[in-house]
Amino acid sequence: MGRMQRVTEGGSFLATIAWLAAALVSAGSAGCSLVVDSNANQCSSDTDCASFDGRPVCLSGICVTGVGPPGCFSGTKTQQTDYLNACTSSSYEEYNNCNNIGYRCANGTGSAKMPDTVAPPTTTPVGSTALPPEPMNLCQDGAPTDNGTPQMIWLYGSSDFGPLLKALQPALSALDKPYRAVFQGSSSCNGVTSIFQANNPTNTVRMKDPDPAKGGWAFYYDAQGKQVNCRIDPANSSSPGRVPEVGISNLYASTCDKTYVPGTAVGDYLGPVVPFVLAVKKGSTQQAISAEAARLVFGNGGRPPAGIGMKDATPWTDYRNYYIRNSGAGSTVLTSYVIDVPKDKFWGIDRSTTDNLRDGLLAAPDSSTSAAIGILSIDFYDQNRGNLKALYLQSKDQKAGFLPDSQPTTFDKRNVRDGHYTLWGYVHLFGKLDSNGALESPAAKSLILLLTVPQIEQNLLDKIIDASLTPQCAMQVSRTTEVGPFSIRQGTQCGCYFDARKTGRTDCQVCTTAEDCPGKHPCRYGYCEQNDNL
């Protein structure tokens, strides 16, 4: 083979080998390294490149190391597998279904078919063991007022919404008409139901003060960013609770109930993207999991039926070590789509809230053989990487597993943004509409508008990014159905700024106005972004 040359890759991965040819000429830009053999037509498959170190792949007749996975796709993406298996410089780990669980072995051993899922044992949800004190203050106390009326926004639903609420409150406080946003966590589907059933007098899915012995108080964030628990109603009140103005969910409405269709009565507004991870203890030797292995874990307790030639999904064979939420939670429902387990048939212990799930997983014994595994939203996981580890997730028809980020130590969400990572959903904000199709609540409109304008105010954008969420403008792909097929995202772009914020570097040109940018590229947040796909 020919002489090896070192080139570098910029902010996004090459789509064709033509990029490599250009890179050979200008190899001075910063980025991750690729090693390329300069002889053309040296390979016709990955096996022809085996003599090189670094797991090389064959791209258009040239052996390239530093990219993968083996057999990766380098053409124009037209179907889901093209996105899942696109060549990338992100780290990856293959989960070998044959070796690990005895599924679809090339030599004909094991099982060619996954077993049917089995109903899980009946379990009791586990709440927090460290309950906060019962608050005596009302949520309205000290809130901004307008002619003596507290200016409130009441929100209810997905229990992992807290970090985004914390990011939003300073922007709400800075409005000409400031608001205090009060949130009570429940589940994604309860957030949906609370709005679609808001006018139903028999509906009980609404905000109300909890049993003090169980916790789950509403809360807001004060001017210092401190969470303040509060009462929705005075103590000993007979109030049936409060109908929220905004329902928070990580799911489309029809996922929760097929009769829930946004349109004339309820609006569905999409916010940032929230990924989820299958997390284990930091000391675990496990690195990856496939959709099929996860199905065996959460659909069969980690143990296949006897006599079908499959193996246990070691070490995850005790459902008491599975940290999950209920069937209405976004973490459970989105995972159910990825691994093909009915959302109401998950094995494991419902930990009641995302906070409790995180705390329980953190408290689980840590060792190389740890059997603890949990489904956790990225904003909660990223804060606890010192004690937890996300597994590389290999989705169905994917050649290898990927993390949400390009590397275990980065926070760039590259694989979520470009379609290599499938376990994510949008933050949905649901609100009641009036007869003209506008939001009934001015308070709800103020909050939702902050997140849905084409160009989000920069201070708010920074807080959203810092909360480990991905604004839509940084996404390269989009979906229109739950864990559905990817397509190229249309609309305002902010990928350059996102990279600069999360990684401290970008290959994009800095700018003050669009006149500083080549061609027709827009200047946004100080960088020449890619042309908007409109």
Gyration radius, to the nearest Å?
25 Å
- The stretches of 5 or more residues where confidence is low (pLDDT under 50) are 1-34
Shape: globular
The residue-averaged pLDDT reads 91
CATH architecture of the largest domain: 3-Layer(aba) Sandwich
Topology:
Blueprint: E1 4-9, H1 17-25, E2 32-37, E3 57-59, E4 62-65, H2 80-84, H3 97-101, E5 145-146, E6 149-150, E7 152-157, H4 162-173, E8 180-185, H5 188-196, E9 218-221, E10 227-230, E11 246-249, H6 253-256, E12 266-281, E13 288-290, H7 291-300, E14 322-324, H8 330-339, E15 349-350, H9 354-363, E16 373-377, H10 378-381, E17 388-390, E18 392-394, H11 414-418, E19 424-432, H12 442-452, H13 458-466, E20 477-478, E21 487-488, H14 495-503, E22 523-524, E23 527-528
Parallel strand pairs: 7-8, 7-11, 13-18, 14-15, 14-16
Antiparallel strand pairs: 1-2, 2-4, 3-4, 5-6, 9-10, 11-19, 12-16, 12-17, 12-19, 20-21, 22-23
Folded structure, characterized:
The strands form seven sheets. Strands 7, 8, 11, 12, 14, 15, 16, 17 and 19 form a nine-stranded mixed β-sheet that branches. This protein has a four-stranded antiparallel β-sheet with strand order 1-2-4-3, with helices on one face. A two-stranded antiparallel ribbon has the order 5-6. It is of the alpha+beta class. The protein is globular, with a radius of gyration of 25 Å. The protein has three domains: 64 residues, no CATH class; 161 residues, Periplasmic binding protein-like II (D-Maltodextrin-Binding Protein, domain 2); 174 residues, D-Maltodextrin-Binding Protein, domain 2 (3-Layer(aba) Sandwich). A hairpin with an 8-residue loop joins strand 20 and strand 21. The longest helix is centred in the N-terminal third of the chain and has 12 residues. Helix 4 packs antiparallel against helix 13.
